[in-house]
């Protein structure tokens, strides 16, 4: 009996998270649509939505249910749990102001990369990414720089778990090719994303290390292909990024 009850509770938890994910995909959705998207009855969907509404994690509007701002509070709290991030944020801002482009910091979690900070310079292009968005690490320069700072064993575990799905035609999807690229990144200290995450957008990134030799994440700058080439994607920009990463690491060490 206890086993059956445990399975029911686990299934209920899975349903709740599936509903949250379904709401994330919409600006407002009704009970029937949620039930259909998740594959549960309307009564089950309504029960979970009512619980989320009671605890202020969703709001109900004329267009239906949608996620509430309470999730924003959770996200802010999560970021504050990592004291080292306080040393990263001003440097991401500085990078955006210096280059005029899009500056980003990605942190690894559960084998994926999470955009923790994003700042736009005066020339920066808009992209689909946002703070909190999860991406495959091999899709971006910051992500590949992060992978390169990990052991081959850890990288293999990540690939085994998530695979190497393509984002564009230029994305590296071959295991051996990725490991060869990671070795190159380790040798030169920076990674390049050339149309691999978004066609037309190039980026360069380097790792930021924590005091225990664990990789904290990757910092990068991104812009249109022609501007990144003109700015020195294999020379001046990597030097700038490495200098900023070194400053962050020093600040973390002597915090």
Automatic annotation (TrEMBL):
Keywords: DNA-binding, Transcription, Transcription regulation. The keyword DNA-binding applies. Residues 70-254 form the IclR-ED domain. Pfam families: HTH_IclR, IclR_C. GO terms for biological process: negative regulation of DNA-templated transcription. Residues 10-69 form the HTH iclR-type domain. GO terms for molecular function: DNA binding; DNA-binding transcription factor activity. Transmembrane segments: none annotated. The keyword Transcription applies. PANTHER family: HELIX-TURN-HELIX TRANSCRIPTIONAL REGULATOR, ICLR FAMILY, HTH-TYPE TRANSCRIPTIONAL REGULATOR RV1719. This is IclR family transcriptional regulator. It comes from Natronocalculus amylovorans.
């Amino acid at each position: 009996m206890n086993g059956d009850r445990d399975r029911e509770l686990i299934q209920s938890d899975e349903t709740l998270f599936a509903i949250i994910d379904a709401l994330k995909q919409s600006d407002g959705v009704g009970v029937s649509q949620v039930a259909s998207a998740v594959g549960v009855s309307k009564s089950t969907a309504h029960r979970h939505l009512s619980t989320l509404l009671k605890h202020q994690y969703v709001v109900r509007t004329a267009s239906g249910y949608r996620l509430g701002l309470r999730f924003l509070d959770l996200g802010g709290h999560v970021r504050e749990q990592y004291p080292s991030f306080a040393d990263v944020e001003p440097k991401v801002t500085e990078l955006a102001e210096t280059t005029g482009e899009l500056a980003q910091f990605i942190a690894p979690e559960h084998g994926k990369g999470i955009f923790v900070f994003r700042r736009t310079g005066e020339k920066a292009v808009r992209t689909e990414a946002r703070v909190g968005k999860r991406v495959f690490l091999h899709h971006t320069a910051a992500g590949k720089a992060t992978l390169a700072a990990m052991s081959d064993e850890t990288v293999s575990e990540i690939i085994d778990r998530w695979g190497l799905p393509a984002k564009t035609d230029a994305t590296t999807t071959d295991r051996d090719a990725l490991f060869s690229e990671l070795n190159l990144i380790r040798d030169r200290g920076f990674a390049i994303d050339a149309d691999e995450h978004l066609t037309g957008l190039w980026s360069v990134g380097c790792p930021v290390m924590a005091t225990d030799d664990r990789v904290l994440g990757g910092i990068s700058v991104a812009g249109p292909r022609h501007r990144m080439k003109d700015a020195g994607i294999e020379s001046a920009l990597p030097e700038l990024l490495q200098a900023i990463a070194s400053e962050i690491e020093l600040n973390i060490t002597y915090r």
